[in-house]
Amino acid sequence: MVPAFEQIMPPLEGETATTTHHSNAGNNGGIDGNKSRVTVVGSGSWGSVAAKLIASNILNITSFHDELKMWVFEETLQSGEKLTDAINRTNENVKYLPGIKLGNNVVADPDLDNAVKDANMLVFVTPHQFIDHICKSLVGKLRSDVEAISLIKGMEVKIEGPCLISTFISEQLGINCSVLMGANLANEIAEEKFSEATVGYRDNREIAEQWVQLFSTPYFMVTPVKDVEGVELCGTLKNVVAIAAGFVDGLAMGNNTKAAIMRLGLREMRDFSKLLFSSVEDNTFYESCGVADVITTCFGGRNRKVAEAFAKNGGKRSFDELEVEILQGQKLQGVSTAREVYEVLRHQGWLESFPLFATVHEICISHLPPSAIVNYSKRKPILPLSEVSAH
Ligand SMILES: NC(=O)c1ccc[n+]([C@@H]2O[C@H](COP(=O)([O-])OP(=O)(O)OC[C@H]3O[C@@H](n4cnc5c(N)ncnc54)[C@H](O)[C@@H]3O)[C@@H](O)[C@H]2O)c1
């Protein structure tokens, strides 16, 4: 029998309470007959697009207050103006999503406590390395009926094992947390080009429908799936596959090689997810959060782009250096996720069964050259773990 996540890492204190949490968010307009209020915690490119999508919808849902707050990690722009002031003055996130109007009902706020205090629906969308600090500072400051959704890709690795960001948010804040993942390059959705996304929920379909309603537009089609772990792991692990795809591009290995790497990556995503959580559904990998996100990230995403530059430079310039130079303040997720996945694989003794994931990390830390990404004859998995688990 394959060890499931629940067996590796016992439920942490408060987990049962959070997973069975039922909120009245949005069903009658929130507590005391007041209207529901949404706050977006984060204001990078995806955070700004999330704000734009929700802002356009709440104007048409009577149970929601018209105003949408967006918490901004304050920065001073080259002009000397504060980012928050620039967003509120221009209605654009001039640094992370220039040229796109967010909607006049979006109010940027640099004060985290103030931004969340009235909200009963919280959208977490920051790079994952900042969520620990954000959650700690929010303890005891939220409404009692808060529902959350995480758009964050990545995971926290504790000594006991991996912790998904949605679980981390639930545990830290004692609230239910759904997820939204998908083939969603922020700049394309900002331009209202059609795409899809997947909402992963735990057990409350009503809340999932509420999130679907908040995010859906004619150009953004959202589907709910009762598999929060599967959806979130897809969104997290595809960034590791995108790094591998970037190496292939940087070495000009061609389309067949890239397709092979994407297929092997998707298989490792599925096997890894199912080993961690026996509840993960195969069908989740056919949703937007699965195969579609692998495709878009391996062709257009920032992880692919920086990994391509890393390989072109023969691994001689570090990812940190290239991230600063190429992304200009945006954050790379795939390299840290590869390290986190590697730690889990090593801890569990699974390294040999996940040669692609292991190789990506070893290339990132310069233990292997970028060309090692295709050394499959030497590092072939003995048997795919999903097949092992089926026996
Ligand atoms: N951009 C996309 O296309 C996209 C699509 C889907 C999911 N995501 C995910 O959404 C999440 C947020 O990404 P993004 O693209 O909106 O951000 P981003 O990379 O565009 O921007 C970085 C953000 O981090 C903030 N920041 C910097 N230092 C900080 C600190 N110390 N504390 C808190 N915040 C700090 C910046 O102000 C900025 O808002 C990530 O998990 C990402 O993987 C991104």
Describe the structure in your own words.
This protein is an alpha/beta fold. The protein folds into 2 domains: 5-226, Rossmann fold (3-Layer(aba) Sandwich), CATH 3.40.50.720; 230-390, N-(1-d-carboxylethyl)-l-norvaline Dehydrogenase, domain 2, CATH 1.10.1040.10. The chain contains 17 helices and 10 strands. An 8-stranded mixed β-sheet has the order 3-2-1-4-5-8-9-10, sandwiched between helices. Helix 12 (288-300) packs across helix 13, helix 13 (302-312) crosses helix 14 and helix 15 (334-348) packs across helix 16. The longest helix is centred in the middle third of the chain and has 23 residues, at 228-250. The protein is globular, with a radius of gyration of 20 Å. Nicotinamide-adenine-dinucleotide (NAD) binds next to helix 3.
Task: Please give the share of residues in helix.
Answer: 40-55%
Low-pLDDT runs: 1-32
What structural category do the secondary elements indicate? alpha/beta
Annotated CATH homologous superfamily of the largest domain: NAD(P)-binding Rossmann-like Domain
Bound molecules: nicotinamide-adenine-dinucleotide
Overall 3D geometry?
Answer: globular
Per the CATH scheme, the topology name of the largest domain is: Rossmann fold
Q: Say how many strands there are.
A: 10
Strand content: 5-15%
Number of helices: 17
Mean pLDDT: 89
Describe the largest sheet.
Answer: 8 strands, mixed
CATH top level class name of the largest domain: Alpha Beta
Order of strands in the sheet with most strands: 3-2-1-4-5-8-9-10
Strand and helix order: HHEHEHEHEHEEEHEHEHEHHHHHHHH
The appropriate CATH architecture of the largest domain is 3-Layer(aba) Sandwich
Our count of domains comes out at 2
* Gyration radius, rounded: 20 Å
Alpha-carbon distance between the two ends: 8 Å
